[in-house]
Amino acid sequence: MKPIGVLALQGDYEKHLNTLVRAEIPAIDIRYPDQLLEINGLIIPGGESTTMNDLMKRVDFHTHIADFAKTKTVMGTCAGLILMSKKVKNDDQINPLGILDIEVTRNAYGRQLNSFVDTVEVEIDNDHSQQEVAFIRAPKISTVGKSTTILGKHNNDIVAVKTGIHYGFTFHSELNENEYFHKCIFSDNIDFQKENNAA
Amino acid sequence: MPKESSFEVKVGLAEMLKGGVIMDVMNAEQAKQAEEAGAVAVMALERIPALIRKEGGIARASDPKMINDIQKSVSIPVMAKARIGHFAEAQILEALEVDFIDESEVLTPADEHNHIWKHEFKVPFVCGCRDLGEALRRIGEGAAMIRTKGEPGSGNIVEAVRHMRQVQSEIKRLTTMNQDELMAAAKNLGAPFTLVQQVAKLGKLPVPNFAAGGIATPADASLMMQLGAETVFVGSGIFMSDDPVPRGKAIVDAVTYYKDAAKLVEISTGLKSAMKGVDMSEIPEGERMQERGW
Question: 3-class DSSP state for residue B182?
Fold first, then answer.
């Protein structure tokens, strides 16, 4: 089975790779567009969205990821969600991929002093749960299009969404050793043979 | 209840800066150039280390207005430096809402015995180190990110290499020790015992480990990444060169593609002159910034 790729241009890609490994999901880091042919799904990690956007532009990752997303799942956390959105309201330097039908505002909670860890309620594929996650200089989703399902809220803010086969989160689950989201989304890729051998 | 400013949240921002380049800038215009070049964060300071070295005098925390101008001009995180032990400067930087404070040997130390007690602050701190003991003392005081000291403003990578290799080899040594050897190791390193235990188990620092001090070329950045750095700081190397934006972009690319020599050829081709730099023998021992910190 093809592995799940983590876009490794900048950001906390290693945390995502470790999370996939803990979830028994084969994983590789992706630095070149032609590697997209080798994977079954893609994670765009957290990091600085301006930097990631710039590095993506330098090798035309935008076109290649947009093509990839026609048939394969893409999941984004924080900066990843910003890059997957349709429009970034307060930043015209970023060229979002438009694979999540949402509009976002960058750094919407303020500077690092306003970063926090908290519990969010989410519902993915009829599975309802509470998850502890981190909001680091996080964005907010200001508008949700008709084709988008809301998967979770924190206070009154929409923090988790799904458009078609793609998932976006304004927070990080990968920072505190939480494999829930990776398992839910990429469960078809779990290496059961490895899991059975371990058990 | 949301947990703001927990250690986890502080380290969280450091995690987001991985695989990137943090650039020293002296005004809003340079900050914008750094952002355009692909910096993950900027370090706001009045004089970059090479100028401090040249001009002499006491180097202090920067003018709040200058930091604030930079905060208004870019959307990436803004860091600023406080003198070693100068907790009042750090309090002012926190009130300014900078995203990270660097308790830095680049500025003139304010306390020759004590560093800032960083746990008390809501803003995360980064500190420099030359060896594992120094790194763990700083983490014990609350630093959420560690960087090598190198020799700031030298344009000479030799000291950053020495410090990164030292830290990595001391970490490796700890991982081979038995439990009953760790207390003596902690004593010899001058490091908190519980952190020594943690490093022995993890095989790495419990916080992100970045490189700084003397990085001037894409190859320097690749070297530090291959030696185990997770991000690089470039101080004087960008704005003391003849072509700040192309050089900044090239170093950003070099950090992403640090293992790909063919790509590094492409990245390194056609840049103008790097900063001139100085040999360590030209810097008298008493004037080496790396010796500041305890």
Answer: helix
pTM for the model: 0.95
Range of the domain at A116: 4-198
Any idea which residue has 């030292």 for tokens?
B166
Residue B95 touches partner A, C-beta closer than 8 Å: no
**Interchain proximity A50–B122, CB inside 8 Å:** no
Quote ipTM for the complex: 0.94
**Subunit contact B20:A106, Cβ cutoff 8 A:** no
Nearest CA in chain A to B99: A112
Which parts of A45-199 are beta strand (E)? 73-77, 87-88, 102-105, 116-124, 127-135, 140-144, 148-154, 157-163, 166-169
* Residue B44 burial (10 A CB sphere; 0-12, 13-18, 19+): buried
Chain B CB within 8 Å of residue A11 CB: yes
CATH of the domain at A126: 3.40.50.880
Clarify whether A184 is annotated catalytic.
Answer: no
Q: How far B233 CA sits from the closest chain A CA (Å)? A: 14
3-state secondary structure (DSSP) of residue B260? coil
For residue A147, give how far its alpha carbon lies from the nearest alpha carbon of chain B (Å): 30
- CA dist., res. B267 & res. B246, Å (int): 10
> Does A50 contact B77 at a Cβ distance shorter than 8 Å?
no
**pLDDT by 10s per residue, chain B, length 294:** 678 779 999 999 999 999 999 999 999 999 999 999 999 999 999 889 888 988 989 999 999 999 999 999 999 999 999 999 999 999 999 999 999 999 999 999 999 999 999 999 999 999 999 999 999 999 999 999 999 999 999 999 999 999 999 999 999 999 999 999 999 999 999 999 999 999 999 999 999 999 999 999 999 999 999 999 999 999 889 998 989 999 999 999 999 999 999 999 999 999 998 888 889 999 988 889 999 999
CB of B25 closer than 8 Å to CB of A151:
no
Catalytic residue among A154, A166, A174, A182: A174
Count structural domains, chain A. Answer: 1
Cβ separation of A114 and B4 shorter than 8 Å? yes
**Interface contact flag, B12 A172, Cβ < 8 Å:** yes
CB-based contact B119:B142 (threshold 8 Å): yes
Q: Which of B65, B72, B81, B122 is catalytic?
A: B81
